[in-house]
Amino acid sequence: MFKKKKHMDEGLLVCIYYGPNGERLIRRGSKIAKMFDCPLYILTVDAKPFDELDADKSMYITKWKKLAKEVEADGFILKDNEQRPVYKVIAETAREKRATQIIMGQTVQSRWEQITKESIVNLLLKEIPFVDLHIISVGRYIKDPDCNYEKGIRAYLMKEGENFRLVFKHTKEIAYEGIFFKEFGTDFNNGIFKLIKDGETLQVQVIEDIVTELTDVDMEPNENNED
């Protein structure tokens, strides 16, 4: 039994997509919902039926459902086998749940914009103009238990032959924009560069200003060892 919310004139809808940011968005949404003392709903959309989802996607959904109960969300909504545009589904759900605020991550927005070929923010504002939209950017931190990195700063990757060079000034030659986390105790630009590629967040290794490959480096602690 969930605690009865006082402010039913407000409602929060968190839109998540597969990847590590889903949990962060749910927790962020939970904090905001508690501040407003209003209902919290969590939504994810997939074009495939649930029973056709691969193991990774099924794992995410199971994890999100568990977290939804943990934060006392008022509902976890999976819209599977959905052929309509994602923004239409979000707008419909927002109306049904009387949501006044919508939260989505930068990677979620980027992933769905690849499908719609248009800004999902603009499309949603046309559908539901009186709802507040919150786009949560890539965080300026890395969950590293050893705290070996300085606070992240805005940086860019520029293509250089078969590699990428880390730079701190935006030019038209820039291939990727992101956040650079420099290792403590080094005079060179060694560390981690956090970027969005094909709608997914990647953390790639930087060695003396150079990134040789856009391969994700796992910097997060093993969740199975947190208990």
Automatic annotation (TrEMBL):
GO cellular component terms given for this protein: plasma membrane
A GO MF label: phosphorelay sensor kinase activity
Highest taxon, organism lineage: Bacteria
Gene3D superfamilies hit by this protein: HUPs
Name of the protein described by the UniProt record: Histidine kinase
Lineage: Bacteria, Bacillati, Bacillota, Clostridia, Eubacteriales
